[in-house]
Each structure stands twice: as structure tokens, then as C-alpha cells.
Amino acid sequence: MRGRVVRAGTAAVVESGRAAQCRGDGADLAAALRTIYEIGDRDALADTVDRAFPGSRVEVTETAGRFRLLLHQPGLNRPLTSAELSDGTLRYLLLVAALLTPRPAELLVLNEPESSLHPDLLAPLGILIADAAAHTQVVVVSHSAALLAAATGAAGTDGTAAERIELVKEDSGETLVAGEGLLDGPPWHWPAR
């Protein structure tokens, strides 16, 4: 059961229930992170947050059936709430929730995940993508050379590396796989009726 979403300003809290997968609008981010902590890979969550924000940790508190996301950072006297986090930090945490979910989809497509992220977050995100690819098929569409280098340079938790496929647009407007000739691809035929 996902529970009821209650909005308070820019922050959202979810009443009762856990979220095995984060909703598209991110309203249940705290619940999704709490689920990863409780039944998923809590060590990977801690490592991923620390890799992106050295010395930091995420905490999800529950009071009267409501989840609240807190980010503890070194040098601050108190943790930051979700309403105080930058768009880039929230976006990164949403990607963390999607990539570390204990019940991943069979296919996860990330369209320009580097948008709104600080450049220092691209390498940790690339490593996270490579790790997630050990559990599900991940397709990333990106214009960021740094993100692609991190994702293809890191071996996932299963020891395999990501494969990079570059698409190029011809003068005719046709999109092709770079370096692939007409006969290089697998044969394809119209299906029989």
C-alpha cells in the first residue's frame, strides 16, 4: 500500500506504507529510501550517498505514520530537510531511489539524468548506473561525456562493464549507430501475418 500523499510547501511526505519503487513525481522519495534501507541494500545506499556527498548520510524518520527525509552533512548543526535541498540534490536522491530499488523493473530508461546535477555528481551517478545494470537492463540517453565515461569505466557489482552505443544523425535526418554499416546489424524481417 502506498499511502496518501500530503504536500506541505515544496516538501512531500507519505502517510503510511512503503514504496518499493519511487513514483514518477517523486512524492514518495522518503518512503522509497526508507524501503531501500529496510529491505534493500542499505550499505549501497550509504555508500552511494557518501560517494556523492562525502561524510553525509540520509535518514528517514517516521512520526505518526509520516516519513520525513533528512540529509546529515558534516559541519552543519542540524540535518537538512527535503524542502532545504537543492533541485540537483533531490534529483540525485531520486535517481538513487530508482537505481537501488529492491524491486527493479526489467528495463529502466534514464533520459539525460545529468540534468540539474552538479558536475561532481556525475562520476558517482555513473558508478551507481553500472552497479544497477547488474540487476536490470539500464538504458541511458546522455550528452555528458563525464557521465558516460564513469558508467562505462566502472565495472558493475557483477563484474561486467556497460556498453556504449553512440547514435549519430545523418544529413538526411536519419539516426544511425556510429560505426555500424548496413550489414553489421542483426537481420530483421517483417513478421508473418
Automatic annotation (TrEMBL):
It comes from the Bacteria. Keywords: DNA damage, SOS response. One of its GO terms (biological process) is double-strand break repair. InterPro entries: ATPase_AAA_core (IPR003959), P-loop_NTPase (IPR027417). Residues 31-149 form the ATPase AAA-type core domain. One of its GO terms (molecular function) is ATP hydrolysis activity. This is ATPase AAA-type core domain-containing protein. The lineage of its organism: Bacteria, Bacillati, Actinomycetota, Actinomycetes, Mycobacteriales.
